[in-house]
Amino acid sequence: MTSADDCYRAAIGAGVDPGGTPWAELDPALLARRRTSTKWTRFPGALPMFVAEMDFSVAPEIRRALIERIEASDTGYLDGPGPLAPAFADFARERWGWAIPHDHVHLSTDVATGVVESLRALRPEGGRIAVPTPVYPGFFEMLVEVPFEVVEVPLADRADAPPCLDLAALERLFAEEPGIDALLLCNPHNPHGIVHEREHLAGLARLAAASEVLVVSDEIHAPLTHRGADFVPFAPIAAAAGALAVVTTSASKGWNLAGVKCAMIVAADERANELLRALPPETATRTSILGLHASIAAFREGRDWLDRAVAQSEANLQLLEALVAERLTGVRVARSRAGYLAWLDLRDAGLGERPQKRILADAAVALNDGRSFGLGGEGHARINLACAPDTIVEAIDRIARLQA
């Protein structure tokens, strides 16, 4: 493995973040005084590396779009995606080869709302929903809003490859009584950063079609797929197999826009689209017009910034891997292929049964507790790497001192 010093120099690069902001201006002590989001207020004094929010400055193209809308006093209500639909469709076609009819794109306040409203529209009677785990904790929180019993299905471990969907377990589950009515897919998978392979997605689509299981695919991390990895949208695979499916997605993770509140629900085919037409009008009107224009700017003009953010995420991941190998004992890092989050296996680190809690209390580093990710998350933690390289070095140094 390349040394931590070499990886640090590579991560520092030209000394600026993807938007051209010097790394020194992303010092956590400075950001804690300038920013007011949960990331900077929940754990005062700790390095905040838990919530999936970037420290990087917002792309200049997006800042200009937001300023233009404010200067035009364009802050009213929305009733549909308008120009966002072709902007996203163009991006999806060029990046992933996914052809999306513009009328298959529907607005949603955020991806969580998109998941909930899709389930209400396509499976109003509720039932049982399968969730591959460990997975983004928000899934469990949003599913409280709908009449579904959550059935956790742990990912299948593989000796020579990242974990994957356990198709055999899903097939057995779908065949049971009372069976499964829906599945909530995370694609790419958070927290591992797994880019699901086409054959696994195709297998899921076939099983879903045969058992009439609705699949809702959260693809919010797709724009952040690393170089050399091929992201596969689920919608066209579902349509080819005859599975009922929708995709929920947004520019919010790729371009750090969570707070501007704009997401999309995309129908996999006309059958799903007809059902989505029953979405309540509030699904669109509660979406932010500022978020819509920020998203259009992201998909149309912010691609260079996105590519730099992906390259920086890869460099920061390599830095983390080298630092963990050199300075921590008994810690393993899952090899991510998408996003800026990393999954740490801390079970052999000697930090107790609740390593995340110990790290927060004694090292002042705030990570996500793996237990909140469902089955398979015990003894793990998730760390956010969308920050200055020095922040990563400081976090690992603090954890290393607990093992000294």
Descriptive report:
This protein folds into 2 domains: about 5-60 and about 305-404, Aspartate Aminotransferase, domain 1; about 70-300, 3-Layer(aba) Sandwich (Aspartate Aminotransferase, domain 2), CATH 3.40.640.10. It has helices at about 5-10, 30-35, 40, 60-70, 85-95, 110-120, 140, 165-175, 200-210, 235-240, 270-275, 280-285, 290-300, 305-325, 355-365, 390-404, and strands spanning about 45-50, 105-110, 125-135, 150-155, 180-185, 215-220, 245-250, 265, 330-335, 340-345, 365, 370, 380-385. The protein starts with a helix and ends with a helix. The chain has a 7-stranded mixed sheet, sandwiched between helices. With about 400 residues, the protein is of the alpha/beta class. About 40% of the residues lie in helices and about 15% in strands. The mean pLDDT is about 95. It has 16 helices and 13 strands.
Label this structure with key terms.
404 residues; alpha/beta; Aspartate Aminotransferase, domain 1; Aspartate Aminotransferase, domain 2; seven-stranded mixed sheet; four-stranded antiparallel sheet
Radius of gyration: 21 Å
Order of helices and strands: HHHEHHEHEHEHEHEHEEHHHHEEHEEEH
Helix segment count? 16
CATH topology of the largest domain: Aspartate Aminotransferase, domain 2
**What best-fitting shape do the alpha-carbon axes yield?**
globular
In the residues, how many domains can be counted? 2
Report the top-level CATH class of the largest domain: Alpha Beta
Give the % helix: 40-55%
> Do you know the CATH architecture of the largest domain?
3-Layer(aba) Sandwich
